[in-house]
Specification:
The complex is a heterotrimer of chains A (373), B (291) and C (276). With 291 residues, chain B is an alpha/beta fold. Chain B contains six helices and twelve strands. In chain B, α1 packs across α2. Chain B is globular, with a radius of gyration of 20 Å. In chain C, the strands form two sheets. Chain C has a six-stranded mixed sheet with strand order 6-7-8-3-9-10, sandwiched between helices. Chain C has a four-stranded antiparallel sheet with strand order 2-1-4-5, covered by helices on one side. The radius of gyration of chain C is 19 Å and the shape is globular. The chains are: A alpha+beta (373), B alpha/beta (291), C alpha/beta (276).
């Protein structure tokens, strides 16, 4: 018989790749290849998720990643992240001021009315999750008519400003909120250039969660919401919109707007803290922000930011307060990679396992025989 | 290869940008300077899964140059899917390197789960892929506390685990990833190599580099360094046994060698078969026999 | 007599503290909570000496700061101020000036502690024998049979059935867990042992046996001990000298017999009277 050590690995890999690519195209003549614009716009939330979990704001490559991974968010974010590894760091932006955000949606759960007003924007929050069967056979004409109709419609939104003051500012002015955290002025920790060595600063936690996997963040934050923790958040402000990205001009050093990124930002207010230095107690804050329109992620992150601050200060009393637990388990690329790796051959280690088991079995046999005789 | 394997996005030599490679090399130097110490580094994402050898891959890509000859093995074989995959990726992104299946010919060897049977030389480097770098994780979940334990060489809780093992099973049941003390201080997880391969680390002529991509750690067993598996004076460390029921050493079904680590499997007709796990070793034995 | 431990002016405040903490608390004022800043003054200005082979009792009600004293000396807590010197043969250690590694070294190699709560002193995830083995392994014993033999001896000495040495401590009764804890603390023959309310919560008959055991061990091994208790009976049986604490201060100290026969402080008088 032949040598069985998985010969022909190269051929097998090629076969797998070909088969996968066939699946992508299996519609054959009746199919139309997805174009990048369609993905970016019609699969907007998926696209935003990949941008944020991939940790690279490159809308076109994010769309490509979705296409080549057949819509698998983890795989798509992964491809984007790997691409990022090949690129040197050329410039750094200063800390961006999110009050400059060109807002498309902002709400506050804390107040009925806020300066500038609530702006519901595009949301599924109050949508009836009914099957929209009319979309089953949507014609290009009907599709285009909706956009056309939208723009023709007389909208009284001309008086809505582009930017709004932050809800937190008014809370701060009223003395209900602590001063701005030192994390906001410190040089932020760069998780792409430095490993996490615990304890880590808050900025490292925020950066890790900003590219964390939505479901992982949600699950751990949910554990806190349900009682494995006690953040009890109130959403002071949640906003979605475009933030101008400022970069220093390579020659003059002057800041210029290089473009804008779509982001979701959430600020939660939680129960107040006891006085540390004889100061008055104030509400505490949790902050979440990520690329794309992903409100669940921003809220979950804000809750975890708050719970992690508790854990960093007093030591964790539950998983969502434990920086090691949260930060080492929310990265989708890490966790899916390791999960997947169990499919790889483990013949050698299993051989070792069998050796140990047989030896201990033999010893147990010998013992019981000895006991009988 | 298919279009997917073409580096059409104009990737740099070694895939990673030069800054990243430099950082890995600095980390390697530190790891060699402090044998067995897990040096943290900012592991980059590779285009293959975390857990598929991204730590080893970053090491290889950072040290390899165009005049090097590379061998990649997984489970002892150059032909296993993962080895093929890694090798083809490295070839694709490292223009000009040579690859080989022959242990003797390689000066950089990346491996998962095995160290070649053939003793390595001073001019060779072996890169091992590591899923769990810290042997203390079984007794202490917090990395912060583990760092202190390592610093003080406090491995008593790990030894208690061995004690409890012997109490319960009359044997140390650790099969692979056997905790091994380097240069009389740091205890390492030598990666999921079988116990069979652990003695090869001791006073190895070749530099042994270990990389954990997901856990972002690099550590090393420098050449001519002591590597001692944890054990008790009166319950020594033991490698896997390949003796049959009558105490006879089994030999490889293919080359007949009875000195190497064997893979055991059931053939398609249902009988037990034993073969060399190290495919190059097996080939060499066949050549020596003139077959 | 040779001194083994000298404590001078030890204070421990929980909370951020203020200049008035020590002035506005204490037995005379009947509180240990600072009215100005709310901090708890657990110990204030405590000094004591302990000699080789001696048992010193620290007695007081809960909140007197007696447990805090041994927790500071065993490095479970950090003092606010004060000094402590441990005399170990020809060496001496400034306990509160040591770095973390040196502290752990003393804990692992020279000190023993038996807690009221066995969960603090034992690892419930490993067998009773394993608990003792851990302490032996810390001391670089590397021979399995010797470790086992020594663990068996210790458990035998503390009257734990040795055929149960491979069971988890969780399977044992409270009294038995304390015996295992004592065996573990003694594994390395420490010259200094701290006992924090070790018999509290146990049946009277079990208490008596454990106290006997402690006394025997002290006589056999000449271990110096600090015994913290709220129980007069315990100091009567064990301690040659006793300190009485209230609201973080020593209010009375001297030979145990003297204190019990002729208590000077009204508080001690009440304690003695209530126990009679």
């Amino acid at each position: 018989m032949g040598y069985v050590a998985i010969k022909g690995g190269g051929l097998a890999i090629k076969g797998a790749e070909d088969t996968l690519d066939y699946l992508r195209c299996e519609q054959g003549d009746s199919g139309t290849p997805l174009d990048m614009d369609t993905i970016e716009h019609q699969l907007r939330f998926l696209h935003g998720r990949v941008l944020s979990e991939g940790g690279l704001y490159h809308p076109k490559l994010a769309a490509l990643a979705i296409k080549q991974s057949l819509g698998d968010t983890l795989e798509a974010a992964f491809a984007l992240r790997a691409y990022r590894s090949t690129k040197p760091r050329l410039l750094e932006t200063p800390v961006l001021d999110t009050s400059e955000m060109r807002v498309t949606r902002r709400i506050s759960a804390a107040f009925k009315d806020i300066i500038g007003g609530q702006m519901l924007g595009a949301t599924t929050d109050y949508a009836l999750r009914l099957m929209r069967t009319e979309l089953l056979d949507e014609t290009p004409e009907a599709f285009r008519a909706i956009a056309k109709h939208w723009f023709n419609d007389e909208r009284s939104d001309s008086d809505i400003p582009d930017t709004f003051p932050k809800v937190l500012e008014s809370l701060r002015a009223d003395g209900l909120l602590a001063d701005v955290d030192k994390a906001a002025v410190e040089e932020p920790f760069d998780i792409t250039r430095e490993p996490l060595i615990f304890p880590v600063p808050r900025s490292a936690a925020l950066a890790t969660m900003a590219r964390g996997e939505t479901g992982s963040l949600l699950a751990i934050a949910y554990s806190n919401m349900r009682g494995y923790g006690d953040v009890h958040p109130t959403v002071a402000e949640l906003r979605v919109g475009y933030i101008p990205v400022m970069l220093p001009h390579p020659v003059t050093g002057e800041l210029i707007e290089a473009g804008e990124v779509l982001m979701t930002e959430c600020e939660i207010v939680a129960m107040y803290e006891g006085d540390d230095d004889n100061a008055k107690p104030t509400f505490s804050l949790g902050y979440g922000a990520c690329f794309g329109n992903n409100e669940v992620k921003a809220i979950a992150m804000a809750i975890l930011d708050r719970s992690l601050q508790t854990g960093m200060k007093n030591g964790p009393t539950n998983p969502s307060e434990d920086p090691e637990f949260v930060l080492l388990h929310v990265d989708g690329i890490d966790s899916m990679g390791f999960c997947t790796h169990y499919k790889m051959p483990h013949y050698v280690t299993f051989q070792s396992d069998m050796d140990r088991l047989r030896t201990t079995q033999d010893k147990a046999d010998a013992k019981s025989e000895g006991a009988m005789s | 290869m298919t279009a997917m394997r073409k580096a059409n996005a104009a990737y740099p030599f070694g895939f990673l940008d030069e800054y990243a490679k430099k950082e890995v090399r600095r980390t390697i130097l530190k790891a060699i300077a402090i044998p067995g110490y897990q040096v943290p580094y900012s592991s980059r994402e590779m285009p293959m899964g975390r857990g598929f050898g991204t730590g080893g891959l970053q090491l290889t890509l950072s040290i390899i140059g165009a005049d090097d000859t590379l061998k990649v093995i997984d489970q002892g074989s150059d032909d296993s899917v993962n080895a093929v995959n890694l090798r083809s990726f490295i070839e694709m992104t490292c223009d000009g390197i040579d690859t080989t299946d022959i242990t003797d010919e390689a000066n950089v060897i990346q491996s998962r789960h095995r160290i070649p049977e053939k003793p390595l030389r001073e001019d060779q480097v072996i890169v091992l892929q590591v899923p769990y770098p810290d042997p203390l994780v079984v007794v202490e979940p917090s990395e912060d506390k583990r760092k202190i334990m390592h610093g003080e060489a406090d491995y008593s809780r790990l030894l208690v685990k061995l004690y409890e093992d012997i109490v319960q099973f009359d044997e140390i049941t650790i099969s692979h990833r056997y905790p091994t003390r380097i240069n009389d201080h740091y205890v390492i997880d030598p990666s999921p190599i079988p116990r069979w391969d652990v003695p090869k680390l001791n006073q190895s002529k070749a530099l042994v580099l270990l990389g954990a991509g997901r856990e972002k750690k690099i550590y090393a067993v420098p050449p001519y360094t002591d590597a001692e598996p944890l054990a008790f004076d009166d319950v020594p460390f033991r490698v896997e046994s390949f003796n049959d029921e009558n105490g006879q050493r089994r030999c490889c079904d293919r080359c007949g060698d009875n000195t190497s680590f064997l893979d055991e499997f059931t053939s398609s007709v249902g009988n037990k078969v034993y073969q060399c796990s190290d495919s190059d070793w097996c080939r060499e034995q066949l050549v020596a026999k003139g077959e | 007599m040779e001194k083994i431990l000298e404590v001078r002016n030890l204070s421990k405040v929980f909370g951020k503290g203020c200049p008035n903490c020590f002035i506005k608390t204490g037995p005379d004022l009947d509180t240990n909570i600072c009215p100005d800043c709310g901090s708890v003054v657990a110990i204030h200005d405590l000094s004591l000496d302990l000699y080789k082979g001696e048992i010193l009792g620290i007695m007081g009600e809960s909140g007197s700061g007696k447990s805090t004293v041994v927790k500071n000396l065993f490095f479970d807590q950090e003092p606010t101020s004060g000094r402590a010197t441990f005399f170990d043969d020809d060496k001496q250690y400034d306990l509160f000036g040591l770095n973390a590694a040196q502290k752990r070294h003393l804990r692992n190699h020279r000190f023993g502690m038996v807690y009221q709560n066995p969960h603090l002193g034992l690892n419930f995830g490993i067998s009773s024998g394993g608990n003792i083995a851990e302490r032996l392994l810390m001391n670089d014993l590397r021979n399995y049979s010797e470790i086992r033999e020594r663990a068996r001896e210790l458990l035998e000495r503390t009257e734990v059935l040795t055929n149960r040495m491979d069971e988890l401590p969780g399977n044992f009764s409270g009294g038995m867990q304390q015996r295992v804890q004592i065996a573990k603390a003694l594994a390395i023959n420490p010259p200094l042992l701290f006992l924090d309310e070790v018999t509290t919560g146990l049946d009277l008959s079990v208490q008596a046996k454990i106290l006997d055991l402690i006394l025997e061990i002290q006589q056999e091994m000449n271990t110096a001990m600090i015994v913290v208790t709220h129980d007069l009976g315990v100091v009567r049986l064990l301690a040659g000298r006793t300190i009485v604490m209230k609201y973080g201060r020593i209010i009375e100290s001297g030979l145990t017999d003297q204190i019990l026969e002729d208590p000077q402080h009204a508080y001690t008088q009440r304690l003695v009277a209530s126990a009679l």
